[in-house]
Specification:
By secondary structure, the protein is of the alpha/beta class. It has two domains: 180 residues, Glucose Oxidase, domain 1 (3-Layer(bba) Sandwich); 44 residues, no CATH class. 31% of the residues lie in helices and 20% in strands. The chain has seven helices and ten strands. The strands form two sheets. Strands 1, 2, 3, 4, 5, 6, 9 and 10 form an eight-stranded mixed β-sheet that branches.
Amino acid sequence: MTEKYQKLASDVLERLEAVSTATLHTALFKKGLRNTYIQGASRVNSQKVKMVGQAFTLRYIPAREDLDTVAAFKDPEHPQRLAVETVPAGMIMVSDCRQDASAASAGSILLARLETRQCGGFVSDAGIRDFDTAMDMAMPIFCTKPSAPTNLTKHHGVDLEVPIGCGGVAVYPGDVLVGDGDGVIVIPLALADEISQEALRMERFEDYVIGKVRTGSPVIGLYPPNETAQDEYNKFIAG
């Protein structure tokens, strides 16, 4: 783990693994943060994998024909290759491709290498190639769509571990990402503990609400709760 930011505490990690991105978005919204959902990036995996980890960022600019040739990949310092070989285990590689999915941001070889190195996940606001292979991987993968063209046709890697924009959301190195079937939420690291606790409280209440709704209770006055409903819930959780 780089010394630029603090490692996510294990108890915070456990809470985030237990809650949905929908709940996390609402918890962040209640804190005044509106733009936390990475637009366009959805889960590739055929299994219902959950992703929780901290961001390891890669920034691209538009490709240029005299620089971005196949020979560029021979450079051991090529930012994309360097990112794949240096992202710490458990961290999530996040690619800023300017929301241009007309070319891939990774393919089966690089994704397999990330999985072997125990990367916590891969997130991109562009496409990926070898999509069918990626669907069967255990490492969480989120992108916008399948895209056969190599990244060299559109994306020129320039920076690692700098603030980026992914899917219209600011992502700073060390930020916390949570991904599920609804997509990916970005949580500022400084708020992760507070948000994880609030989200867990919210989901416990929502589980209670779903139980009431399924037995015939109307939503009005229950969600959000009026005073009577809140008193009933307080008695319920008190045992």
